[in-house]
Amino acid sequence: MTSRLRELIQQLGEAIHESVIESEQIAGVVQDIRRQGFDVLLMLEATIGLNEVSAKEAGADGGDETGSDAPFTPNDLNFLRSLRISVEGLRDSPDNESDSRED
After folding, report:
1. How many domains is the chain built from?
2. Is the dihedral of CA 8, 13, 18, 23 positive or negative?
3. What is the pLDDT along the chain (103 residues), one digit of tens a residue?
4. Residues 6 or more apart whose Cβ sits within 8 Å of residue 13
């Protein structure tokens, strides 16, 4: 792993941390819990998986996905689903059929 990649992963971790501590929704829920007489200790674990993309997979443009019809890899979609985040416009894909089930 290159030092630049390590730096980028560290920046990603810091960005996740910042988004959590700046979330008004999280702050509101924590405040509600404290009003109930409890102290809150919030510990989150983020697993960052990296898969090197071959030149063939990245395409002739060097991997810039801005013009791609599929901006997310299957790993991206699995990660987003694990966070209970759905991606609009992908409802018809076979991977998302389980998301449309009625309980």
Report:
1. 2
2. positive
3. 788 888 888 898 888 888 888 899 999 999 999 999 999 998 888 777 888 887 666 665 444 444 455 677 788 778 877 887 877 665 544 444 444 444 4
4. 46, 48
3-state class percentages of the chain: helix first, strand second, coil last, to nearest 5: 50, 0, 50
Domain encompassing residue 19: 1-50
Is the same domain home to 43 and 84? Answer: no
Question: Taking a C-beta distance cutoff of 8 angstroms, is the pair 71, 63 a contact?
Answer: no
Residue 32 neighbours by CB distance under 10 Å: 11
CA gap 51, 46 in Å, rounded = 16
